[in-house]
Design a protein that fits this description.
The structure is a homodimer of 406-residue chains. With 406 residues, the first copy, chain A, is an alpha/beta fold. In chain A, 19% of the residues lie in helices and 31% in strands. In chain A, α1 (7-17) packs parallel to α6 (304-323), α3 (207-218) runs parallel beside α6 and α4 (233-246) packs across α5 (258-270). The first copy, chain A, starts with 6 loop residues before the first helix and ends with a strand. The interface between A and B is large, with 110 and 110 residues.
Chain lengths: 406, 406
C-alpha cells in the first residue's frame, strides 16, 4: 500500500536520494540571466581599476586646502584637465590641482577632489578653493569595490539581472552555468484529448501537459513533451523508458483512478525503485516518487491543481537537487480574508489572490468545490496550512509564497 | 536647471504622459507564459464539460442509500461499468448503480457517488452500500468550475504558469498578448570600452549595456543594443534618432559629468521634450525623462547601481504604461541587520542580502563606499528608506522587494 510521507519527509528524501549530475556549459553573459552558476565567480581584477573621482571638480592635495574658506580661498595652480577615459599626464605637485570630471582618473599625488561648486576659476591659471577637503573626499580608490581573489557570486546561485553588472565589470563574456535539466512530461488517461479537440462526453482536455511545461520552464528547466498515453501499462512502460533515456527527470501525470494509479506505480517500479507513494498533503496525496538510476520519476496526480502544487513544491526541490541550485522560497505575511476549515491531519496548500489596502497585504483563498482550474487561474501565490492547524479564522495572518516577484 | 521630482511625482508623470500603443499578437499557449494578456479571457465552455466523480466507487441515487449501514447495507443492482473517457450507455434507474472511476462521467439520474471502500461487491450483480450518501457527494457537476461568459483572466495580467491550465482547459491554443516592447539601449561615455577589452588607464568597461539588457528582458521587454557612443552630441543625436524610430522606448545611460549630462539632455530635447530632469532619490538623482512622440526616452546615470535602480523602478513603470500591464511590486517585512544613517531629504534605495533565522527574514544592506558593483552583485532584493526618515537602527523592520520569487 501507500508509503505516505509528510511534506518535510518528502523534501528530505529528495535531498538524500538525488545529487547534481548535470554538466556545465558556457553561455554568453547576454544569455546567463536565470541560469545556475556552475562555479564561484572570483574577481581577477581591481574594480575600479584606477582611482576615480565621484564628482566634477578639482583633484587636490587635501592638505593644501586646510583652513581655506569663502573669504580666504586656497589658491592652487591649475596643472591641466583630465579628460574622461584618460590618465593625467603627470602627477600632482603641491600647490597645484587638476580639473577632473565625474568618473575621471584622479592623478598620482592627489588625495581628494573638491566639488566644482566650492571653487572659483580666476581664468589666469589659478583656482580658488573655498571649502577644505579631507583626505579621501569624493574619491573611489582602485580596488575599493573588488580586489583580485574576492568571491563575487557563489556557485549554485541563480543569476539575476543585478548580478550581470559584476560579470560585465570583470570582463567576463562567457559564464559557466549548469545545463538546463531536461524534464520529460507524460500525460496518461483514457479520458484525455489534446487541447485543440472538443472533448466528447466523458472526455477532458489534456491540461497538465501544457501547465507543467510552462511551470517547469518557469523554474529554469527545459522540457520534452511525450503527449497523451492511454492507460496501458505496456505503452506507458515503453514511453517511460524512452523518456528516462532522453531526460534528466520524468513527470507522469494522471492515472488518478485506483487501477491506473497502480499501473503507473508498477511501471515506475519496473524501471527503477519507488521511494514513496503518497504525501500527507492536500491536494496531491497520491503522488509517487521513483528513482531510475540517478533520475527522479514523479507520478503526479491527474488533477491539475494537485499536479501544479506538487510540481511547484517537490519537482522544484528535485530540480535544485540535480543542479546544485541554492534556492529559498520567499514568503510574506498576509491577512486571510475568510475562514478556512480544518485539515484532518494533512497540510493543505491553496492558491490565493492578493490585494493591498492601507499598506497591508490581503490573501483571498480560492477554493472552489471542484477546483479544477479556477483554483489556480488568476492567483498570485499560495499558502500552506500546516497539518496540525485546527482551521484559521478570517483575519488570521498567513504566509504567502509569490508566483512572481513583480 | 534640474526640474527635480519626488519618486511619487516621477511615477505619476509616467502614468500621465505614456499610454498603451503597442499592438497585440497571437502566440501559442506554449509561449505565452510571462506575456501580458491583450484581452480578457472569457470562458466559452462549461468546465467540467460533464458531471464527474471525484472518487472510485458507485454512482447511485442518494435516496436509495438512506438509512443503510454496515449491518444493513443497501442492496443495489449493478447496471454496468463506466469507463474513463466514456459516457454511461443508459441513465441510472432507481435501485441500481454504475461503477465509476475517479474522473469518470456520472450517469444521468445519479446524484451521488459512494466510495468503493464503503461498498461490497457480492459478485452476483448486486452491490452492497454500507454508508448513506447525501445528494452531491463526491460529484463535480458540469460547469462547477467555469460557465460560459465567466471572466477567467483579465486583460493586463502577466500570464503565470498557474494560469496556463485555465487556457488549456478551455481549448485555447493561441493567446492574444501585447507584443514585447522594444527597448533601445545606448551607453555613452568616452571612458567606456566593450567588456571583452582590458581597460587602459582611466577607462572602464561598459557595464550598463549588459546589465540593462538583462534587466529589461527580465521585465518582459525585448532589447536592441546600440553599443557605446562617444560623448559627442552629433553622434549621440544620430543614434538616438535611429533608436527612437526602431524602438518603443530608449535608455541612454552615462553622461554623468556636467558637460556630458547637459549634452544628453540637449539631445533628448532635440528629439522631443524633457518631462523632468532629476529625481529626489539616492542613487539616481540626475535621471532625465523625455518624451519623443509617444515614446519614453530615459537619460540614466552612468553609475551602474543608479542605472539599475532607476530601471527597476521607473523603466518598469513605463513598460507597464506602454503595455497596459497591471503589476504590483510585492514586499515582505525583514529585520535590518545594521543601522542606516539619515538621508538628508532624499529617499534612498539599496540592495540587500537576505537570510532566514527562526522563521524571520533578515536584510543586510550592501553599501560599499564606492558601490560600483558589489552593491548589487549577490543581492536578493532592495529596500527603500523614505526621504523623511531620520535613519534606521539595527533591528528595525524594513520592507524588502524581492528580485525573484524563488
Amino acid at each position: 500500500m501507500f508509503t505516505v510521507k509528510t511534506p518535510e519527509e518528502a523534501f528530505s528524501v529528495i535531498e538524500t536520494e538525488f545529487h547534481p549530475f548535470i554538466p556545465a556549459e558556457t553561455v554568453p553573459v547576454s544569455a546567463c540571466c536565470g541560469r545556475i552558476l556552475a562555479e564561484d565567480i572570483i574577481s581577477s581584477e581591481y574594480v575600479p581599476g584606477f582611482t576615480r573621482s565621484t564628482v566634477d571638480g578639482y583633484a587636490v592635495k587635501a592638505s593644501d586646502t586646510f583652513g581655506c574658506s569663502d573669504s580666504i580661498p586656497a589658491l592652487l595652480t591649475l596643472s591641466g584637465e583630465i579628460l574622461m577615459g584618460e590618465e593625467a599626464a603627470a602627477a600632482l605637485s603641491a600647490g597645484c590641482c587638476f580639473s577632473v570630471p565625474t568618473g575621471g582618473a584622479v592623478p598620482e599625488g592627489a588625495d581628494a577632489v573638491v566639488m566644482i561648486e566650492y571653487t572659483e576659476d580666476y581664468g589666469d591659471g589659478t583656482i580658488g578653493v573655498e571649502k577644505p577637503a579631507s583626505p579621501g573626499l569624493n574619491i573611489i580608490y582602485k580596488g575599493d569595490d573588488l580586489v583580485p581573489g574576492k568571491t563575487v557570486l557563489p556557485a549554485g546561485r541563480r543569476i539575476t539581472a543585478s548580478d550581470i553588472g559584476a560579470l560585465a565589470s570583470l570582463g567576463i563574456t562567457g559564464v559557466s552555468v549548469i545545463k538546463r535539466p531536461q524534464i520529460g512530461i507524460i500525460s496518461t488517461g483514457d479520458e484525455l484529448v489534446p487541447i485543440d479537440q472538443v472533448p466528447a462526453g466523458g472526455q477532458i482536455r489534456d491540461v497538465n501537459t501544457h501547465m507543467l511545461d510552462a511551470l517547469c520552464r518557469e523554474m529554469g528547466a527545459g522540457t520534452r513533451i511525450y503527449g497523451i498515453v492511454r492507460d496501458d501499462a505496456v505503452l506507458l512502460s515503453g514511453i517511460l523508458e524512452k523518456a528516462i533515456s532522453e531526460c534528466d527527470m520524468v513527470l507522469i501525470s494522471g492515472g488518478s483512478s485506483v487501477g491506473a494509479r497502480d499501473a503507473a506505480a508498477a511501471v515506475i517500479e519496473k524501471h527503477g525503485s519507488i521511494l514513496f507513494h503518497g504525501i500527507a498533503m492536500k491536494p496531491g496525496k497520491p503522488t509517487i516518487l521513483g528513482k531510475a538510476g540517478n533520475r527522479p520519476v514523479f507520478g503526479l496526480p491527474g488533477h491539475p491543481v494537485a499536479a501544479f502544487f506538487i510540481t511547484k513544491l517537490f519537482v522544484r526541490h528535485a530540480i535544485a537537487a540535480l543542479t546544485g541550485e541554492k534556492y529559498t522560497v520567499r514568503t510574506a505575511p498576509a491577512v486571510l480574508t475568510e475562514a478556512l476549515s480544518t485539515n484532518h491531519g494533512r497540510s493543505e496548500t491553496l492558491g490565493v489572490r492578493l490585494s493591498e489596502r492601507d499598506g497591508r497585504l490581503f490573501a483571498e483563498p480560492v477554493h472552489t468545490k471542484s477546483g479544477l482550474i479556477s483554483a489556480l487561474a488568476g492567483t498570485d501565490g499560495y499558502i500552506t496550512i500546516p497539518r496540525d492547524c485546527e482551521g484559521l479564522p478570517a483575519g488570521a495572518e498567513v504566509n504567502v509564497s509569490f508566483y512572481a516577484a513583480c
